[in-house]
Amino acid sequence: MDSTLDIAHASPEELAALHADLRAQHRDLVAANLSLDLTRGKPAPAQLDLSSALLDLPGDGNYRAPDGTDARNYGGLTGLPEVRAVWGEVFNVPGAQLIEGGNSSLALMHDVVVNAVLHGTGDGELAWGGQQISFLCPVPGYDRHFTILEGLGITMIPVPLLADGPDMTVVKDLVAADPQIKGIWCIPKYSNPSGSVYSDEVVAELASMPTAATDFRIFWDNAYAVHHLTEEAVELADILATCEAAGNPERAYIFGSTSKITLAGSGLSFFGGSAKNVAWLQKFLFCRTIGPDKINELRHLAFLPDAAAVTDLMARHRAVIAPKFDMMLRILAENLAGSGVATWTTPKGGYFISLEVPDGCASRVVALAKEAGIALTPAGATFPYGKDPKDSNIRLAPTFPSLADLEKATQGLTVCVLLGAVEKQLT
Ligand code: PLP
């Protein structure tokens, strides 16, 4: 295959030859009966092994919190102060303004939206339920954020996500004009799936922009706060302090978890915000639970006693997954760079690569890959309602497969991208 052929400018003869070649390669892939998966933004087993020590912690007899509390018993609605202090440093929130809330930050996000729908945000405004409200959704984005809103009948308005955050010209115009726009999803660092990192300017604008809704909220999902893939530990501006300085102290709800730091299904999750917002959530948490799993908190405290221990562990994660990203990026470049039909992101952290194929081709590429035994995230998943208006974005998740599987899957994927693009060019 001539991987340097510029498909958009190829002659009909060149295209026909390339098409025949790619069809043959695709047939070989189908015949190989592969079963490969690039869909899952999950830690690999080797990453989970890094936290195996947790399985033996806190250890027989070690059930006392630093202040003597018996962690086996009920109590302590917001989590152990020592745990909140460590993770407050990681997520840039004062420990007293951080709640530990169980094994899933997504569950906390769901709780927060549901509580605002049922009760309002505590600003003296109406509950969000009973009104037709909307959220801004930077795209491409995280499908599970969209699922929360869709389930509650909240209208989703896509806004473009650029390399340094959402397109603020679009965002500012929309929120200034429409009092029914109540929120925006933000994955501010190493965004899922594009790897975008919000610049200080974007953070400042989000914090200070005039909004027609007085109960407007930024849902700041800092899921990849410490998930660096390079030497550079990219910095993110302090959203809480920036909102406060801008005179909007209640604007940001902050979320994070240890899901991709320790054990994805058995970690700790966090909600942070202004003292007022924390008290607001606490009131509803009181109705839902007597308290979080303090034994799991103790286990994490023994394993990761301070932010420096978290940094150390993340360096070990990086050693496992950076070679996977490097391999995928190398194969994409070798096989697609000269074709003129695909672009992709080169993230400095996080779990994903975002691939753009020609308009109208993403579903076809995903279908071709499926025929070849390579599972890709469904086309459209990165957009509200599962609908990518251009049908061009595909989310790639290199972390879970072994290097050998990843190599086969990425080689196969590039055949499908080229075949999909040539088919389109021929129609
Ligand atoms: N937020 C983002 C942006 C994610 O990508 C993910 C998982 O992929 C989650 C949240 C899930 O977080 P948790 O495991 O804490 O529920």
From TrEMBL:
<dbReference type="InterPro" id="IPR024551">
    <property type="entry name" value="AspAT_Ic"/>
</dbReference>
<dbReference type="GO" id="GO:0004069">
    <property type="term" value="F:L-aspartate:2-oxoglutarate aminotransferase activity"/>
</dbReference>
<dbReference type="InterPro" id="IPR015424">
    <property type="entry name" value="PyrdxlP-dep_Trfase"/>
</dbReference>
<keyword id="KW-0032">Aminotransferase</keyword>
<keyword id="KW-0808">Transferase</keyword>
<dbReference type="InterPro" id="IPR015421">
    <property type="entry name" value="PyrdxlP-dep_Trfase_major"/>
</dbReference>
<dbReference type="Pfam" id="PF12897">
    <property type="entry name" value="Asp_aminotransf"/>
</dbReference>
<protein>
    <submittedName>
        <fullName>Aminotransferase class I/II-fold pyridoxal phosphate-dependent enzyme</fullName>
    </submittedName>
</protein>
<dbReference type="InterPro" id="IPR015422">
    <property type="entry name" value="PyrdxlP-dep_Trfase_small"/>
</dbReference>
